[in-house]
Every structure is written in structure tokens, then in C-alpha cells.
Design goal:
Layout: E1 2-3, H1 15-40, H2 50-54, E2 65-66, E3 73-74, E4 82-86, H3 87-93, E5 108-111, E6 124-127, E7 143-147, E8 150-152, E9 165-172, E10 186-192, E11 200-208, E12 212-224, E13 227-238, E14 243-244, E15 255-269, E16 272-285, E17 290-295, H4 300-308, H5 313-316, E18 341-342, H6 351-355, E19 365-381, E20 384-402, E21 411-432, E22 437-458, E23 461-465, E24 467-485, E25 488-504, E26 508-512, E27 541-560, E28 563-574, E29 577-578, E30 591-592, E31 595-608, E32 613-625, E33 628-631, E34 641-644, E35 646-659, E36 665-681, H7 683-688, E37 702-710, E38 712-713, E39 719-729, E40 732-733, E41 743-744, E42 747-757, E43 763-770, E44 778-784, E45 789-794, E46 799-807
Parallel strand pairs: 1-27, 7-10, 14-18
Antiparallel strand pairs: 2-3, 4-9, 5-6, 7-8, 9-10, 11-12, 11-46, 12-13, 13-15, 15-16, 16-19, 17-45, 19-20, 20-21, 21-22, 22-23, 22-24, 23-26, 24-25, 25-27, 27-28, 28-31, 29-30, 31-32, 32-35, 33-34, 35-36, 36-37, 37-39, 38-39, 39-42, 40-41, 42-43, 43-46, 44-45
């Protein structure tokens, strides 16, 4: 058994760096808060209590309640860098799934399609430059995604539809104390609406570009006194936006999704509630919209195809003959058809590859997800509550890639995925000393099992390169906030976590050696043959155990009812794991250690001018160690492998603005800055081409967004609300080695809409356009030197939509 231990050390003294960086953001934003602080420090002004703030003009900025500290409180009272958007805000932005919130959240980037995966239900989340760009079963995400307090442990199945959502919270920075492992970048918490006590409902239908048909609705049905239910449904169909240009090539990037959720709330007494929910979704789509950006016909696999299988080797191998670039039998740059065309036919020359997995090879991204959860809250005393969260989730999937994007069969994959998880969390919450001390303690347990049969074909060679994994996680935690003096609060917390993962190599062997037969590729120098293991003798398992202490501490001071400031330290860790892709074969099962992140942060939250302007900001310094990066190390082979290969320092700031300067006018804005640098790389990273001058992937220096809407009252006709949303991301490096073809320069996105509501606001219509300026941008990508293929997924082109909604 291989054991790994992560030990927490004392806090490094980096105050000078933190304060120097803090001055930058102070110049950018805190000056606005200082105008009221001068009056707020005089405690004669403190008579404006929180209750008076709540009674302010309803035309002010919306108050949002969050549960970032496991208790309901105003976002403005929470000393964490947090963004939150309500269900109404999601509707006004025309957002369909959780990945789209990255467009307007500072220092957040969502990849809606992960490199190497062909599943449309897999997203990579990066916050402040920290995340995980690999979806494989044996690697953990770097940002935790939660649905009603339930952690979703894998990237597959984390593209949640916006279905009866109350709000989405984005917590930036390590959240290791209350949320646990795999939140070193932050956490995204999706909270659904609970069933109401009255009969009510809503339905919305949408049509638009690419034959879009979408209907979603929800209804609350009270069943009896203290028994309330709700039902929500969602169906979305849309044609693909990446066109197949040859016979048999399907259109990619389509949508075919059906989802539903049933919730039941029981209130046996005034101090006891039980929330039960069952949710599920079913997608039957073509493969993810990957396209070929460039093709190198001199790569080993490309040359072998052109020589042995093209049927026109004399033409295809003669690089001086221009006819090869128009002969469809040849594999070369003629098939580099990015951004919105491809030539992949999803046909194979290998009957073994076509039939070995449970599903035959074809264009597909089929995913089934269902989950059940139960949350019970009991107020056992006036100042003590107990909460239990029990959940089970299951994901099955089948997806394929035609990685050469042509009628040839250079590199293709067929994935069969099964994964399920069970989790149980207990929390005890309370307050003491006349509510001067608020506390929470708890425990967490989860178990997970998964089986990923990742079948890979390279010309006529076929490998099973998957994972069979079992894991358990156990944690205990506690956090408390104490009022040291009026308006001065100290918060401290700590979590102990133990993770255990066991990897079996049962899905790691050569199915058909093909053209690699006889080559000295095995660890012992022998030739390769069908049935050979890829990771030591078949039947072997490996186990790793990670333990970590993740503390946090913060000091907050409220200068006035309108201005809160805080200084915090937090630590998080992401579990270790195993690499499931190796070639040539290894004599062992390769693993990697956990990575850790420590963040020092200064922030402020302010509500100005009778809550008509809200300005929140944070400045941070992060030490990021033992980075798990996905690289192609030529000394180890040509498969992408995860290794702990670097340390980094990330610093930056965020500002968020919401304003209601006059009735009807709403202004929102966000600004994020990242200065992310490798401080050290080891030989494993250097071998793959990563140096201290390499830029961190998915860490754009600047993220900016703005939105303006205005409600025009038209008397008995109702009201109209035009809206414009703009966002900007500076240069993004889409892989660890900064492949030039995968670098996306800075780009702007503009969405626009106009909504109409009748005088009763019971029904309305919205006409909108997304990507109004037809911006072309690369969302993710991967470079395969052995196959000679550089591929990627581009953002959707300009699209219009028309929605009609009604409620009762």
C-alpha cells in the first residue's frame, strides 16, 4: 500500500506582499467605500442598524442570502470572496446551464468541453487559475461543485441544467474547512428552490437558431398541511453547429437533453423540516464539437496510415505532389477544417475496436444521471440545530471521438463510463454568549466506485486504457465566529480529511497490437502483442491514502452598516490519484500526490447611497504547490500523463459592482486580474516542455464583464426591458505546454436582448441574440504529436432566440 501524507505547516509570514498587493485594489475600489467610512467610524452614525438597511428603498440592489458558511446569512455579511446570482438573474441573462456563469464572474473560467473527452456533459472549472483540465476517473477536480450541499465528485455529469434554481454561489479561494477536499480553487454551490406552500407554477418555451426547441417548467403542489411538493422539467433540442462536410460525417455540437426534478418538503413541526429530492437527466447527442486545427502528415501514425491503409501511398507519401492535398484518401492538412467544419465519419478499420466495448463505435455523447437526496434539519434547542445531508448519485455514459476528424482511422476512442457515489454529512450548528459566538461542527463520509473502459485505436492497434476505481473519504470539521468587540469578528476553523483510493488495472491491456507488433515497447524490451498489460501484470491493484489538515482564519471589521472589511488565510488540498493513460506500457501503476493551495486575502464589501450601489472587492496571494499537470513526457511515452511537476504563485484582485442609480436602470460589472507564475518546475515538467517561463493554463490575466438593463414602463401595455451583456477574457493558454496553436488571444462576447412583461407580470416574451458580434474563440484544445493532430472546441457562433413564459 502506498501512503501519502500532507501536513499543514505554520502560516508563512507574507504580510508585506499581501499589503503591497492590497494597495493596488485599494486604489481601484476602496476609495469609494472610504467616503462613508469617515462617517461610519463615528459611532453616532451606527444607529443605522441592519434592520434599517433591510427597510431601505426596494429600488436598491437586491439582497441575496447565501450559505457559504453553512448558515443562511446576507452575502454582504460573509467575509469571503463570493459571487451570487439569483434564479431571476439567470433567466434575464438567458443562461441554460451552470457553465455559462463563467462569462460574467471575475477570475472564473469554465471549459464546457474538456480536452480529450468527447462528452458534452463534462466541464472543467477554473477559479483564480486553479482547476483540473482532465476528466479521467482517477483524477479529482480542482473546484468543488455542489448541488443542494451534495458534492459532485467527478467532472462527468457536472454540466447542470438551470432547473428550478434559487441561486448559484461562486466561492473563490480554498474552501477546505467547510467544503473539504478538491476545493483548492474554490467552490460552486447550486441551490434549488424548495416547494412552496401555495399552488403556483411557471412554464417557458424557447425557439431559435439551429432549430432550437426548449421547454422548461415547474409547479408547486401542496399535498396537505406540512406536506409540500414541486415538480420541474426541462427538454432541449438543437441541431449541431459544426457541420460534417463528407458523407457519413454528422453535425456536432447538437443538443438533445431531457431533465426532471421532484422535491418534497415535510414539516412535521415548527422546529423540524425534511427535504427529499430526486433528479435525473438523459442526453442523446453526437460527440463533442471537436475540430482539427492543424494536421502534421509527417507524424508517425499519419505516415503509417498513408503508407499502409490509404490505398494511394504513392500520392499520399509524396510531399512534393500537391495532388495529395485534394485526394480524400490521404491524411494531411486538407482535413484541418476548423472552426465549424469537420470530416470525421466515425468509422473504423478495426472490427475489434467496433465491437469490444458494450456499445458499437459511432458518434455519440450519451449520458444518464440520476440522484436522490434527503436533508433533515432539527432545531433541538433555541440555539442549537442539527442537520443531516444524505445523497446518492449515479452516472452512466457512452461517448466517442474521431480524433483525426477525417475519413481515415488514425486515432479514435470509445468510452463506456459507470460511476456512483454515496455521501453522508452531519452538522451541528449553534450560538452562545448572547449570539456573540456562532459555531458549526460536523462530520462527512463518502464512498465512490467507478469503471471507465476507455478504448483507444491508433490505426490498427487497439488498447483498453481505462480505470476501475474505489474510493472513500472521511472528514471532521469545525468553525466558529466570535465577536471580539462591537463590529469586530474573529473566525477560525479546521478540517481533517482522510482519502483512500484503490485503482485496479483490469482495464489496462493491449486488445490488438496491430502495426506495433514486435516493436520493443514493453518495459522488459520484448515485443508488443495482443493481451499484454499496460501497467504491470493484470490483476494488480494500487492504493493511496492522503491525509490533510486544512485550517482557515479571518478577521472582519464592520466600519459602518454599509462597509465590511476582512483579512483571511485559508488552505485547501486536492487528492492524489492515478494516471490511466500510458503508452508504451509501464511495469507499475503510476500515481501522483495531492496538491495544496494556501491563500492570503484582504477584501471589502460595501453598500453605498442607500444601497443603490454595491461595490465588493478582494485582493489575494496564493501559494500553489505540487501542481498536478497533464503533460506529454517523451521520456515516458506519448500518452498524456498527470504528474506533480511544479509550484506556482498566483496573486491578483477582483471587483464587482451592482448599481441602481435611478429607478428602472440596473448596471452590473466585474473585473478580475491574475498574475500567475511558475516558481519552480522539476525534471518531469522540463521533459514535457514546461519551464518557469511557461504560462499557467486557463488563467487569463484579465477577466471583465458588464451588463446594463433598463425597464421602460408603458402604462397599461406593461413594460419593456432592453439588456446588453458584455464580457472579455484576455489571452488564454489552453494546455500546460502553451502550444502556439492552442493559445486564444483576448476576445469580447456581447449578448443582447429585449424583454416584454404584461402589467400583471404573469407572462412575458424575450427576444435575444448571443455572441452578437460573431466572435470566434477557442474554448479548449489538445495537441497529439504521435498522431500529428491539433484539435479544439470553438465557442458557439451567433445565435438568436425567442422565449415566451407565463406563471400562475
Amino acid at each position: 500500500m502506498k501512503k501519502q501524507t500532507v501536513k499543514s505547516g505554520g502560516m508563512p509570514t507574507r504580510q508585506a506582499e499581501v499589503m503591497a498587493l492590497a494597495r493596488r485594489i485599494m486604489l481601484a475600489g476602496v476609495s469609494a467605500g472610504a467616503m462613508l467610512a469617515s462617517g461610519g467610524t463615528a459611532h453616532a452614525q451606527a444607529a443605522a442598524t441592519a434592520e434599517q438597511a433591510e427597510a431601505a428603498d426596494h429600488s436598491g440592489v437586491e439582497e441575496i442570502t447565501v450559505t457559504a458558511r453553512r448558515r443562511a446569512e446576507s452575502m454582504q455579511d460573509t467575509p469571503i470572496a463570493i459571487s451570487a446570482v439569483s434564479g431571476q438573474g439567470l433567466q434575464e441573462r438567458g443562461i441554460d446551464n451552470v457553465t455559462q456563469i463563467g462569462d460574467f464572474t471575475p477570475n472564473v473560467k469554465f471549459n464546457s468541453s474538456v480536452p480529450v473527452s468527447a462528452s458534452n456533459a463534462t466541464a472543467a472549472i477554473f477559479i483564480r487559475g486553479i482547476g483540473q483540465n482532465d476528466y479521467q476517473l482517477s483524477a479529482d477536480p480542482g473546484v468543488g461543485l455542489y448541488l443542494d450541499g451534495v458534492y459532485i465528485s467527478r467532472g462527468v455529469g457536472n454540466v447542470l441544467d438551470v432547473l428550478n434554481i434559487e441561486r448559484i454561489e461562486v466561492l473563490r479561494g480554498p474552501q477546505g474547512t467547510l467544503f473539504g477536499r478538491n476545493t483548492i480553487g474554490g467552490a460552486v454551490s447550486v441551490v434549488t428552490r424548495k416547494p412552496g406552500q401555495d399552488l403556483a407554477g411557471a412554464i417557458e418555451a424557447t425557439t431559435g437558431s439551429f432549430g432550437r426547441i426548449q421547454v422548461k417548467g415547474n409547479i408547486d403542489v401542496p399535498l396537505a398541511q406540512g406536506v409540500y411538493s414541486s415538480l420541474a422539467g426541462f427538454v432541449h433540442k438543437r441541431n449541431g453547429y459544426v457541420k460534417g462536410v463528407v458523407a457519413g460525417a454528422p453535425d456536432l455540437g447538437d443538443t438533445d437533453n431531457l431533465a426532471g426534478r421532484f422535491a418534497l418538503r415535510l414539516e412535521p413541526g415548527s422546529d423540524f423540516t425534511i427535504d427529499l429530492a430526486i433528479d435525473g437527466s438523459r442526453t442523446r447527442e453526437n460527440s463533442a464539437p471537436n475540430v482539427a486545427i492543424a494536421i502534421n502528415e509527417n507524424a508517425p501514425a499519419a505516415q503509417y496510415w498513408n503508407a499502409a491503409y490509404s490505398g494511394a501511398s504513392a500520392v499520399c507519401l509524396n510531399t512534393a505532389n500537391p495532388a495529395r492535398l485534394t485526394n480524400p484518401s490521404c491524411f494531411n492538412s486538407q482535413w484541418a477544417l476548423a472552426p465549424y467544419r469537420h470530416g470525421g465519419t466515425f468509422q473504423t478499420i478495426s472490427t475489434v475496436f467496433d465491437t469490444f466495448n458494450p456499445n458499437r463505435y459511432r458518434s455519440a455523447s450519451d449520458v444518464n444521471i440520476w440522484g436522490a437526496s434527503g436533508t433533515a434539519e432539527w432545531k433541538v434547542a433555541p440555539n442549537v440545530s442539527i442537520k443531516s445531508i444524505t445523497a446518492y448519485r449515479k452516472v452512466t455514459g457512452f461517448w466517442t471521438r474521431d480524433s483525426d476528424h477525417s475519413p481515415a482511422s488514425i486515432i479514435q476512442t470509445n468510452s463506456d463510463w459507470k460511476q456512483d457515489q454515496f455521501s453522508q454529512e452531519f452538522q451541528v450548528l449553534g450560538d452562545l454568549l448572547d449570539k456573540k459566538l456562532n459555531w458549526v461542527v460536523g462530520g462527512y463520509y463518502s464512498s465512490e466506485s467507478g469503471n471507465h473502459r476507455d478504448l483507444v485505436q491508433i490505426v490498427d492497434a487497439v488498447f483498453l486504457s481505462g480505470a476501475a476505481l474505489k474510493g472513500e473519504s472521511l472528514a471532521v470539521f469545525g468553525q466558529a465566529t466570535y465577536e471580539l468587540a462591537p463590529s469586530l469578528n474573529l473566525t477560525g476553523g479546521i478540517r481533517w480529511t482522510q482519502d483512500k483510493k484503490t485503482f485496479s488495472n483490469e482495464n489496462q491491456f493491449v486488445v490488438a497490437a496491430g502495426f506495433l507488433t514486435g516493436a520493443p515497447l514493453n518495459p522488459d524490451g520484448s515485443g508488443l502483442k495482443s493481451g499484454d498489460p499496460l501497467m504491470g501484470p493484470l490483476g494488480r491493484t494500487a492504493t493511496i491514502k492522503d491525509r490533510a489538515w486544512t485550517p482557515m482564519a479571518s478577521l472582519s471589521y464592520r466600519f459602518s452598516p454599509e462597509l465590511l472589511t476582512y483579512l483571511s488565510y485559508s488552505k485547501g488540498f486536492k487528492g492524489g490519484g492515478f494516471t490511466q493513460r500510458v503508452f508504451p506500457p509501464f511495469a507499475f501503476i503510476p500515481s501522483f500526490r495531492p496538491e495544496t493551495s494556501e491563500t492570503y486575502e484582504f477584501g471589502f464589501k460595501s453598500d453605498l447611497f442607500d444601497r443603490r450601489v454595491r461595490l465588493n472587492g478582494a485582493v489575494f496571494l496564493n501559494n500553489y504547490k505540487d501542481l498536478q499537470i497533464t503533460v506529454n513526457d517523451p521520456k515516458l511515452g506519448f500518452a498524456p500523463i498527470i504528474q506533480n511537476a511544479a509550484e506556482a504563485r498566483i496573486q491578483g484582485f477582483e471587483l464587482e459592482l451592482q448599481a441602481r442609480p435611478v429607478d428602472g436602470l440596473r448596471i452590473e460589472g466585474g473585473l478580475g486580474y491574475l498574475d500567475a507564475k511558475y516558481r519552480k518546475v522539476d525534471i518531469r515538467a522540463l521533459n514535457a516542455g514546461v519551464t518557469t517561463n511557461t504560462k499557467l493554463q486557463n488563467a487569463p490575466k484579465w477577466t471583465m464583464s458588464a451588463a446594463v438593463s433598463y425597464t421602460i414602463q408603458a402604462g397599461e401595455l406593461g413594460s419593456f426591458q432592453p439588456r446588453v451583456d458584455w464580457s472579455y477574457r484576455s489571452r488564454v493558454y489552453n494546455d500546460a505546454v502553451n502550444t502556439p496553436l492552442l493559445i486564444q488571444d483576448g476576445y469580447h462576447l456581447v449578448n443582447a436582448s429585449i424583454a416584454y412583461n404584461d402589467p400583471t407580470e404573469k407572462w412575458g416574451v424575450t427576444l435575444g441574440v448571443k455572441n452578437l458580434t460573431k466572435t470566434l474563440y477557442l474554448g479548449s484544445g489538445y495537441a497529439d504529436s504521435f498522431g500529428g493532430i491539433t484539435e479544439g472546441v470553438y465557442g458557439r457562433p451567433r445565435e438568436w432566440y425567442l422565449s415566451a413564459r407565463t406563471s400562475f
